[in-house]
Design a protein that fits this description.
alpha/beta; Glycerate kinase, domain 2; 2 domains; six-stranded mixed sheet
């Protein structure tokens, strides 16, 4: 048999191979076996690891790097993309992903690095963003991201702090007056691959907390924190203006440990299916 054309379109192999690496390996083997075969490389993703590579391979652009805070509070190098038309592609797996930490830290991991990548892309002039939020290490409701962008969170004694999973219940006041003004000049589309709500038995903590290292007691604590966050957000911001729903009830707000919620509330983002968007590109 002589193959005439092969389309190679794998997703990533989490923690082992990126989609691009897998594509290149398969392409090399196909070419070895069938030297005259046309090979089309098309790495795909669903909003998780490898989304930047998949999107840039479809629409073109350049990779940039920035030193940001890891989920476990170290300095790491993370990549983001900017397309030829100036659209920024920011992948949370690069900065706040489960593979970007030493060990598992379900109660204290933060999305601060993701916010720092957004700032870096803003500094490059980007005002249109595709945010890819799969593969997270975090359950902080996107509060770390928001804090990196200038949002301030206060506890009961009036001190500011950056909430993480174990301290979400300590939020009593939110001040968005200091958020980077360029956020209001920008548009954000969030690619996610789940439709879970923020909290509850199908929420971020119960469904995804265990794979991030949370034991049953910690899952309950995380879910309590996300429930509290949802209540506070409703008090301060009302309902989602796009859907008219409570933020916590919107499908996908439980994505990435509640980062979907944070993106809607603090960035005015729209959620869409990651795999549908990638395949369309």
């Amino acid at each position: 048999m002589q193959l005439k054309k092969v389309i190679i379109a794998p997703d990533s192999f989490k923690g082992n191979l990126t989609a691009k690496q897998a594509t290149d390996i398969i392409a090399e083997e196909v070419t070895t076996a069938f030297p005259d075969c046309e090979v089309v490389k098309m790495p795909i993703a669903d909003g998780g690891e490898g989304s930047i590579d998949a999107i840039l391979s479809a629409i073109g652009g350049e990779l940039h790097t920035e030193h940001v805070q890891s989920p476990d509070d170290r300095k790491i190098e993370a990549a983001y993309g900017i397309s030829g038309s100036g659209v920024a592609i920011v992948e949370m797996a690069q900065s706040s992903g489960i593979t970007k930490q030493i060990g598992l830290h379900p109660m204290t991991s933060t999305t601060s690095g993701f916010g720092q990548l957004i700032l870096a892309a803003l500094d490059k002039g980007a005002r249109e963003f595709i945010l890819c939020i799969g593969g997270s290490a975090t359950t902080d409701g996107g509060c770390g991201m928001a804090a990196a962008l200038g949002v301030r969170f206060y506890n009961a004694i009036g001190d500011t702090f950056i909430p993480c999973g174990e301290t979400l219940c300590n939020i009593v006041r939110i001040d968005t007056s200091g958020i980077d003004k360029r956020i209001g000049e920008s548009s954000f589309t969030v690619m996610c691959d789940v439709d879970n709500p923020l909290y509850g038995t199908r929420g971020a903590a119960h469904i995804y907390g265990p794979q991030k290292g949370a034991d049953p007691t910690q899952v309950l604590k995380l879910d309590e924190g996300l429930h509290h966050l949802g209540t506070i957000l409703s008090e301060y911001f009302g309902k989602d203006p796009q859907s008219g729903k409570e933020f916590a009830d919107i499908p996908g707000t439980g994505a990435a440990g509640g980062l979907g919620t944070g993106c809607i509330v603090f960035l005015g983002a729209k959620l869409m299916s990651g795999i549908d968007a990638i395949l369309e590109l």
